[in-house]
Task: structure prediction
Amino acid sequence: MSEMVSINVDGNRIQADKGALLLPTLLKNGIMVPHFCYHDALGPDGNCRMCMVAIEGQKRPQIACDTLVKKDMVVSTKNESINDVKRKILELELLSHPVDCPICDQAGECSLQDYYMEFGLNEARRPKEEKKLKNKKLDIGKNIILDQERCVLCARCTRFTQEITHTNELAIIGRGNDARVSTVPGQEMQTPYAMNIIDLCPVGALTSKDFRFKQRVWFMHSSKGVCHGCAKGCNIYIDHNQEKYKSDTIFRYRPRINNRVNGHFICDEGRLSYKDENNERLSGFYQHNKLISEERAMTHLLHCLTTLHPLLIVSPSLSLEELTVIQVLSQRFNLEVHAFAQGYQDESFEDDWLRSKDRSSNLASVKKLDIKTSKDALIRALECTGLVINFNHRSFLNTKLQDQAILVNKKEIHFASHSFDNCKHKELLIPISSYSENEGTLINEDGVLQRYEAGLCNEKKSLLQILHELISTPATPKEVWDKHLNEVFGFGYEDIGPEGKQL
Amino acid sequence: MIQKIVSKNFNIENSHTLEVAKKNGAYQSIDRAFTLKPTDIEIEISKSGLRGKGGGGASAGAKWCLVSVTNEKSYLIVNADESEPGTFKDRQIMQYDPHLLIEGIILTCYAIHSHDAYIYVRGEYKFFADRLNEAIKEAYEDGILGQNVKDFGYRMDITVHRGAGAYICGEKSALVESLEGNRGHPRLKPHEPSPEYYFGKPALVNNVETIASVPFIINEGADAYKAFGTEKSPGTLLFGMSGHINNPGIYEMAFGESMQDFIDKIGGGIKNGKKLKAVIPGGASTPVLNAEEVKLAKLDYESMKEIGSALGTGGMIIMDEDTCMVGALKNLLSFYHHESCGQCTPCREGTAWVDGIIENILNNKGKEDDIDLLSDISKTMNGKTICVFAPAVSMVIDGFILRFRNEFETYIAKSKEAVDV
Result:
């Protein structure tokens, strides 16, 4: 157990862990100390020298990232002399920087830019002709563009490949002001986590080829999502924006820190899965390739439910609340629910870090609700019915996947967020909103129950809303919890904290 | 003035061979040492007041103690990455008396309970590395090294490793990094006094000359060593002279001699009867002294600090009255610009910037506020980096500006004329 001690920072007393590093302690307490090389996931490196603070009893300014908290230490982060030191070191960081913020994708989320506005604001004391020129827009693979001139050589990216992925794909080569980040000549980044270095980079040296020039960051809104790419449930920010005359669109996913699940990082495939979320969205209700009104669709649906005794197939990626409501629906009409999901298994995707072979995001909830998942049970059930209602089960929609063959010669009603082959030709097609537009909860493969919030505003009804209007089931996840789940779990929807709840 | 302890065999023919070395007393201290306890050797070294001779002048005994108290498997790493401009003393030991170094290594390793020593030789010293390897081979064949040192039942292995030509690898933590196979970047300093760690095990890093001084202390005793030099700087050092001097070379003297005497009596005065202008006292990284200060300078750590410079490695660069001090500074700054490892921002960018400013001044493109700018950058570089490279550069710049400001001003005035015309 660490001992809590009191320290004095700029005249205020704060409580801190004795022996902890000073910089994260200050940052945790909301005290802004500029830093490039320190990162919570990588620890201190001590190379950028930006986090200088004055400590009483020390002759010289010290770097906060490598200073240990001691009882009653007196720290000054913003007196005139320490500000001058920071200004001078920032001046050196900017000495050969191209200052191309207007065309730099990092603008708006760039530490260099922020610090300059905060306490730099100096005139250039070296003629721009004397700037050190290095390589620009180097494609180092994996969607990453490197601009060596913008780099502050904090070594976060190289330390990531050395200490986190152990792939050693990046290194700093050259000495003195000729130093630069580089891959092995002729080789590209390989690791499936490579794009994390874009987030780690505090400046515009590493930018995403995928995101570059698509959107200024200050136009975007961020919502707290959970990646639906596999059963790991990595926490993400969904950055989206609704441009004039266009629908609300996602521009990127970024990792969101959750030390219980994914730490600071996500895999590249999950990061780029926003494209699947954006593309091929459905709108309009269809019956045998005819656009019909919502009313008519609902009437037909109700008719089918009451008279044709359909089989319900649910996607193992639906939220816990959606699954719960479908179960209520099945009980109301005495129907069977199945979630056979072989098509979601992908052994080749698995690794020992953040990628799971289960490419569905909520199979744990399916099991928690005792929904059947076996193939035999599904085939037996199919023999007794002529109609299947599919709730966004992807592998039943994709003709390339073997699961689809099971549905031959059945009438199909689909609740779907994204289009699929021949979707409009089915018995009935009902468009629903997708996970980036809804809130809800998921249980990941390690049993962590997590909430994600609604992000995008596109005018599509959620599955909960549609069923609510149809058979008066609860309309929101909160109501689902109050009515059905509080008792099961022993706590409420609001009790699920930002890091989720380990079940 | 000359006191030969480390250099006693330098002038003997074939002194580098085991046969000649043995004739002149090599490896005698081993027999004595193995009758003592390791701690006795450590105490003797502490008593002798032996100070590290790589430039810093820290107490050797205290450093040994940090390693020996850990009671872990440990290593001795001999720093032979002699790259400081103006310094060429360790190579003399490796060239003329490699067996003295090996003897010192065995004694030191015994004292700190180590069985493995590495000698990190700068990349350019191929000849000296080869010579060391020949000597080590002889020592193995003679049973001085190997599984059973001189039948005392102690295993001792020495490996010579050549660097790849980086000045910064003379910094002990960068040296260890480099020896581990990494890029030679200095490490963050530990929060408490602690030894270096080589692959996670404590390691003692000492300069060649420091280790080569150990056999004398064991043979003759700490008091015999302390008889030389001053109270706080006991013993001798291989002082060097280069530049505008009649007798350049390496001369071993006790600490505390007068610098002026050294230049006049041993160095034979300034070349071509010119007057002395300046001396860089101990390798490039020590602040320059002008002729007046040289008259007052005494060659020991404390006195040199008192007059605003440092003894460093004792490798003096002598400059006569015709030397352009702006040019001299440019020469030094080009070196530092080239050799900065590039890890810390102030050093990486600062060394390049100051080099550029001096180049402009030399090329008649200087600006009036350039001198102040140099001082300002130098202030930013001082005391804000992981290692002492940048502070050394800062001290070099400050030393030149403090003592020879007028020469910089003359250049800048010329630049102004050039612009006005």
